[in-house]
Amino acid sequence: MSATFVGMPPFPAAAREKLADAQLRRNLAHATSTIRDRRAALVAEVDTSVDGGWEALRVAGADAKDTALRSLDRQLLRLEETLTANGATVHWARDAAQANAIVAGLVRAHGADEVIKVKSMVTQEIGLNEALAAEGIAAWETDLAELIVQLGDDLPSHILVPAIHRNRAEIREIFLRAMGAAGRPAPADLTDTPAVLAAAARDHLREKFLRAKVGVSGANFAVAETGTLVVVESEGNGRMCLTLPEMLISVVGIEKVVATWDDLDPLLRLLPRSSTGERMNPYTSMWTGVTPGDGPQQVHVILLDNGRTRALADETGRQALRCIRCSACLNVCPVYERTGGHAYGSVYPGPIGAILNPLLRGVGHSAQIDALPYASTLCGACFEACPVRIDIPSVLVDQRAKVVDAHRGGLPTPEAVAMKAAAVGLGDARRLAGGERFTRLGLWLARRVGAAAWTSTRDLPPAPRETFRQWWKRTDGGTR
């Protein structure tokens, strides 16, 4: 599998390629519309008289996350204290390399050469599977969609449904072709019926669950008050990873902390409705350190920064750290629905990826990252859908400004030259009046030379027969 998204072309080039894939667009349109409809039905049923309605729940969720972020230093120390008191070992990782080294060291020290994994965005973010492979350690994905991606030597395309770009016929072919090389093969008479595909995946994974000594997870939330980690899922594979192995290693982004159990309450009601369109997740697993004789007897928690303190320092962008990875913004985004997640070149695609990647990694050093804040129409649908009220459009505009500022100096771009010329022309009435005589010529040239790329996708109105000044002069100020 490709080790990283780095090296993929910037969004404009990648999106152009994906737009030409008619099957991809059909897969995306069907999947996102189905999830949108389910979400809308569940959101509408939130009882205003009991909960104050959906909007009140959104405000409560945003407040819970902001409470922790405003005192993140204290909450993290409290989390470390409660985790340690309950028998877990806490590690701190500044970046991906440090986190991967800690995981690999723990697996080797336990005498294992493979791990089973809960679906985890943060381990994809740091490239854990590839780092472990370089150390001779196999990492097996157990979430059905992640298994499809892994067996297909593919990359995830969606936060909630990583294989959203695949249809069931494609999944059948992947299982038949690749399962045998990774373990138990798919049955020769495999069909593309969803239940049959799921049964083949279950049989394939069962031997891995029973054999593996080490499990690896992320966490949806970490409660500082008690040292409790929370993972929500729909299949039960995650619970197998969390309970069967001898050792459990959880890589947790530092923004996942919430202060108290009360703060967890609105988030556990917002997440399932926003992600899978369910009232509650089929599996909500919580564990607090080590319980003698029950579950993993060695629990390690790696608290990961990897750019999160950079994002926290951004006054406008820090709200992105509220994100609970529900993917609601992807499912309503007209850009994502037409291009899919691969065009964003990141494990975090869609509107949230367009702001989170620049915030975590900084702008001005990668054409790929610098293009992401522009991968949006700024329609605002993402903000309306976000369960924790992240104002993604505002952050996108702010990040666009930062991209421009990062490239100041040196040779000016054609756009900068055009804006400077416009400022000179519009800043003086006589220059403006003189320039108006050449409006027709200017628009003709713009369509063919200077702004051809811009005007090829936007309507440029024709030049009027006469300017306002000419009309004013001819009609004596509109009196005749």
TrEMBL record:
Q: Does the keyword 4Fe-4S apply?
A: yes
- 4Fe-4S ferredoxin-type domain boundaries: 320-390
The segment(s) forming the LUD domain are 78-304
Q: Which UniProt keyword terms apply here?
A: 4Fe-4S, Electron transport, Iron, Iron-sulfur, Metal-binding, Repeat, Transport
* UniProt keyword annotation of Transmembrane helix present: no
Q: Which InterPro entries match?
A: 4Fe4S_Fe-S-bd, 4Fe4S_Fe_S_CS, FTHF_cligase-like_sf, Helical_ferredxn, LUD_dom, LutB/LldF, NagB/RpiA_transferase-like
Q: Any signal peptide, and if so, which residues?
A: none
Pfam families for the chain: Fer4_8 (PF13183), LUD_dom (PF02589)
Instruction: Quote the protein name from its UniProt record.
Output: Lactate utilization protein
What species was this sequence derived from? Answer: Frankia umida
